[in-house]
Amino acid sequence: MNTPSARIAEAASCLSGHDPEALPVAQAQQIIRSMLAPIDAVEKLALRAALGRVLARDIVSSIDVPAHDNSAMDGYALHGADLDAECAVALKIVGTAFAGRPFNGLVGRGECVGIMTGAIMPDTCDSVAPQELVQATGDMRLTVPAGAIQPGANRRLRGEDLQSGSTALARGKILRPADLGLLASLGVAEVPVYRKLRVAFFSTGDELRSIGEPLDPGCVYDSNRYTLYGMLTRLGCEVIDLGVVKDDPATLEATLRSACEAADAIVTSGGVSVGEADYTRQIMAQLGEVAFWKLAMRPGRPLAFGRIASNGHSACLFGLPGNPVAVMVSFYFFAREALLQMMGAEAPPLPLLRVPTQSAIRKKAGRTEYQRGILAVDEQGRQTVRTTGAQGSGVLRSMSEANCMVVLAHEQGEVEAGDEVDVIVFDGLI
Ligand code: AMP
Ligand code: MG
Predict the structure, then answer these.
(1) Rg from Cα positions in the chain
(2) Whose CA is nearest to atom 15 of ligand 1?
(3) Which atom of ligand 1 is nearest to the CA of 222?
(4) Minimum-distance ligand to the CA of 228?
(5) pLDDT tens, position by position, 363-404
(6) β strands within 118-270, DSSP E
(7) Centroid of ligand 2 to alpha carbon of 47 (angstroms)
(8) Quick one: which of 156, 170, 182, 333 has the most CB atoms within 10 Å?
(9) Fold equal for 42-60+171-194 and 70-156
């Protein structure tokens, strides 16, 4: 039987030097990528409602945008051939073209029309002299100084934004504000998008308490429930919050089953570290095929990945570690890309900046490290990065204070002050 774990093992064995006790991040990402398929259900949404959703079809422009040559400036439309680089020319003003109200007369040689930004260029005119570069006199005469503009200046060409028949937006695009505007410029009112990916998530651990409950000795409040909620919601998933599950086989099995029946993907936190993996592994093995990895990374070493089934429904599963920073790092560097792939999104890799570090960073070659950083501009106006201090995988404050992640590659050794490091910025402008 071609089971998913058999397939995971097969995918893993294709990788040279694959070591399940210290699987390099890039290899784990590659295995996950090779195992997932995008959802195919499509829905049509009104333009505004499509913000942040994944486009399910290519959008081909049915019109030229702009539909006509038009003026890029307020000024005067004229014949480029009338211009003289050596001496001023005098032209007769024969009318005005407004945006939305074209000038329909003829503009002969030696003539011009006043024109507003966005107004259609009169047929015979090919250039616009901006208002501030010319002198209009009361008797409908205009003087264009020598060399004021080049022939052809300040004319926007028909179709220069989008040509009829060209692909305006490609399937898989996550729609951003500019895309809504672009679709509106084509007159598109409804947009085909993939249905939202349904993701169920829960926290595991006897020591976890929910907000509002008393904090018994040795217990902690369940913070992963909130970070996971935030990360999944920001990614554009429909979240199904299954709360806290005790370290008890029957409850874990029941919760995994209901998650599987309700969702396309399941994200759990906790219960995959060495001490607990055996018991989680047994339950997951009953429900499907899940690989438990030890990754060559910090934080976030244990990770479970696979697919489980219940009552004819199946869902892909990410078993993330329990430590609050580890869960976030594992989400961003494993689950995020995988979920985007399932959402049908063509998401390019996150851009990396190369920035000098303010101080040395301890680092061992042979694992990828994700240190929380603060990117800032120094007195000389240069960007530099420093780490947020204590980098323990339980120190959630480090994520909250950081504005970027310093990514130290697998092979990288010790980092000296002033060395350039890779940085992924948390927040984008759009
Ligand atoms: P585990 O991966 O289950 O061994 O958990 C590792 C550490 O993370 C333990 O100290 C847990 O108490 C802590 N932890 C696990 N889940 C959560 C959670 N949902 N919120 C806060 N801390 C957690
Ligand atoms: Mg636990």
Answers:
(1) 30
(2) 322
(3) 20
(4) 1
(5) 999 999 999 999 999 999 999 999 998 899 999 999 999 999
(6) 127-130, 135-137, 141-144, 155-156, 167-169, 190-194, 198-204, 208-209, 220-221, 238-245, 265-269
(7) 44
(8) 333
(9) no
Which residue is closest in CA terms to ligand 1's atom 7? Answer: 323
Q: Which atom of ligand 1 is nearest to the CA of 224?
A: 19
Element (H, E) at 4: helix 4-13
Q: How far is the CA of 382 from the centre of ligand 2 (A)?
A: 43
> What is the reported pTM?
0.92
Ligand nearest to the backbone CA of 208: 1
Closest atom of ligand 1 to CA, residue 207: 12
Question: What distance in angstroms lies between residue 411's CA and the mean position of ligand 1's atoms?
Answer: 29
Level-2 CATH architecture, domain 353-425 = Beta Barrel (2.40)
Q: Which residues contact 363 (CB under 8 A, 6 or more apart)?
A: 369, 408, 412, 413, 414, 415
How far, in Å, is the centroid of ligand 2 from the Cα of 140?
84
Domain 42-60+171-194 is in which class?
alpha beta
**Ligand 1 lining (C-beta closer than 6 Å):** 203, 205, 207-208, 220, 222-224, 269-271, 273, 276, 321-324
Rounded Cα gap, residues 234 and 229, in angstroms: 8
Mutate to test the pocket of ligand 1, among 323, 325, 329 (most ligand atoms within 8 A of CB): 323
Look up residue 379 and give its two tokens: 């007195």
Q: Per-residue confidence of the chain (430 residues) as pLDDT tens digits?
A: 334 456 777 777 666 666 667 999 999 999 999 999 999 999 999 999 999 999 999 999 999 999 999 999 999 999 999 999 999 999 999 999 999 999 999 999 999 999 999 999 999 999 999 999 999 988 999 999 999 999 999 999 999 999 999 999 999 999 999 999 999 999 999 999 999 999 999 999 999 999 999 999 999 999 999 999 999 999 999 999 999 999 999 999 999 999 999 999 999 999 998 888 778 888 998 999 999 999 999 999 999 999 999 999 999 999 999 999 999 999 999 999 999 999 999 988 899 999 999 999 999 999 999 999 999 999 999 999 999 988 999 999 999 999 999 999 999 999 999 999 999 999 888 7
**Identity of residue 404:** C
DSSP strand pairing (313-320 vs 265-269): parallel
Question: What are the two backbone dihedrals, phi and then psi, of residue 146, each rounded to the nearest 5 degrees?
Answer: -55, 130
Number of the ligand 1 atom closest to the C-alpha atom of 275? 4
- According to CATH, the topology of domain 8-40+196-343 is Molybdenum Cofactor Biosythetic Enzyme; Chain A (3.40.980)
Can you name the CATH fold of 70-156?
Answer: Molybdopterin biosynthesis moeA protein; domain 3 (2.170.190)
